[in-house]
Fold:
Amino acid sequence: GAVVSQHPSWVICKSGTSVKIECRSLDFQATTMFWYRQFPKQSLMLMATSNEGSKATYEQGVEKDKFLINHASLTLSTLTVTSAHPEDSSFYICSAAPGTYNEQFFGPGTRLTVL
Amino acid sequence: AQSVSQHNHHVILSEAASLELGCNYSYGGTVNLFWYVQYPGQHLQLLLKYFSGDPLVKGIKGFEAEFIKSKFSFNLRKPSVQWSDTAEYFCAVNAGNTDKLIFGTGTRLQVFP
Structure:
């Protein structure tokens, strides 16, 4: 149980385009979903926390207008990287938690490459 | 601000050797503590967690960790590693009143047969 999926697993796009990444909890309802960014050989950096039906809470230094997060249902959150640039190339990972202060279950990640 | 330190960035061991990976955090209040593992090409998986109770926590695959509050530490141990333990290990903390996880920088473990 407690499976989280991400789609796509990898994406290559041109500079200036927007990319949407989906995160789904497959067998549980996720009150909260989290979006992380992982640079090569580095740790996961929390970008934002999203709760179903409300606006996401962004971490300091993360541009809200660039990284749009929508948590439309208890099983789906999306991250849209708008007007992507090469410096946005990274590994984006989502996680989902079934309740408050619960363990987080991680998705497999999405590799974004912006040319 | 909360932070998590993992002092060992890269550990190389032979099979059957004992393992201890350090993890220290900075936060004075109640914390929940986690160790996650990321096998090559796979997603993060939970090894073990501490919320309260017995400070010696046993996890999957023979791993255990000990929470020492006075040292702000949560070191991961395994008495005898296997080649299949080769992976990246992340310590993570969340303060007792938040959902956010703060991750350490990770330790890359390589186990040679």
Notes: The mean pLDDT of chain B is 92. Chain B touches chain A at residues 32, 34, 36, 42-46, 49, 90, 94, 96-106, 108 (CB under 8 Å). The radius of gyration of chain B is 13 Å. The first strand of chain B starts at residue 3 and ends at 5.
